[in-house]
Amino acid sequence: MPPTEGLSIRGLAKTYPNGIAALRGIDLEVAPGLYGLLGPNGAGKSTLMRTLATLQTPDRGEIRLDGIDLLAEPDRVRRRLGYLPQQIGAYPGVSGHELLTRFAWLKGRTDRRKRRAEIERLLDRVNLTDAARRPVATYSGGMLRRFGIALALIGSPRLLIVDEPTAGLDPAERNRFHRVLADVAAEAVVLLSTHIVEDVENLCARVAILASGRIVAEGTPAELTGRLADRLWSWIVPRGETPPDAVHLSAVPGGTLAIVESSTAPDGRFAPHHPRLEDAYHVALAKTGILEVAA
Ligand SMILES: Nc1ncnc2c1ncn2[C@@H]1O[C@H](COP(=O)(O)OP(=O)(O)OP(=O)(O)O)[C@@H](O)[C@H]1O
Question: What's the half-sphere exposure (Cβ side, CA atoms, 13 Å) at 96?
Answer without folding.
Answer: 27
